[in-house]
Amino acid sequence: MNGSGPGGRGKDPWSMLAFGPVPSRRFGRSLGVNNIPPKRCSYSCIYCQLGPTRSMRIRRRPYLPVQELVRAVGARVAACESRGEAIEYITLVPDGEPTLDSWLGAEIRTLKTLGIPVAVITNGSLLWRSEVRAELAEADVVSVKVDTTDARTWRRINRPGEQLRLPAILEGLETFAGAFPGQTWTETMLVEGENDDAEGMERLAAFLEGVAPARAYLAVPTRPPAVPGVRPPSGRAVMDAYEALRRRLSGVELLTSPEDGTFAHTDDPRRDLLAILAVHPMPEPTARSYLEGAEADPAILDELLAAGHIERVGYRGKAFVVGRRDGVPRR
Questions:
Q1: Could you tell me the residue range of the domain that residue 201 belongs to?
Q2: Phi, psi angle pair for 219, to nearest 5°
Q3: Helix (H, G, I), strand (E, B) or coil at 263
Q4: Which pLDDT does position 13 carry in this prediction?
Q5: In principle, which of 132, 264, 296, 317 could form an S-S bond with 291, CB 3.0–4.6 Å?
Q6: Angle between the 198-211 and 235-246 helix axes, to the nearest 10 degrees?
Q7: Looking at the domain assignment, is residue 282 inside a domain?
Q8: pLDDT band for position 135 (50/70/90)?
């Protein structure tokens, strides 16, 4: 798994298979897993914190051999345990859509042998496929994006692959949730002027009532989005959406502020930071504090910026550092 360069596997940009644990608003101390190469996704959401999708896909295929992925995760778990770092979930949350990986079911089954609950965060776009539902059923928790039930709004916000159809996706989610022995969670990202209207939220609430998620999260953009101008709705609109869901569902929670907590590190803080930033943009002061906490030179951040391995992006008056959104580090 080792290689040259800051990414760890030579010139391969898909180099950090396991990262964290990071503080997650949903999963606590979450050890992230990358089972998909960068930005291969079935959506190109306007609010995506990782930038536009570079490789739109809806066909599934195998990527990394299962044992190689599990070896990387197991090594990370062992390193965390040796330092007393708690891990509450192993979470498949790649820089892309995890269900595009046709080895997903085997990966989940094997990861569960590590003795830690396994969660999957998915956009739900392939839930119309029975084999995807069967593979996700191996997990302990599946969190599914549901931003709207209106097809036109869905195409504007999520910008899906042309062959996808929202009614089939929503039906697939209902089928999955009705049979899944674990916990189904949903997450809705509210975007000002797109899906924050009262009528649309009432339709969404009625649909989610049929899904009956154990938790229904309402989120707003807190990091630099893929499309400039994307903003969170007003506080009043967010509360109206919250109340619309609360009238039909239990377990409704707001995700309107960034995560609190510390990011784990090993004896290679440069690699750790790159792995986190590949899927989890940080405010620049947080990234510098991370390096200081790892007893590393904070100048590492400036070196990575100068080399083009990461970039600085502004959002709502704050400076964030993120993995290269075009996927091509400068040489």
A1: 18-265
A2: -120, 165
A3: coil
A4: 36
A5: 296
A6: 30
A7: no
A8: very high
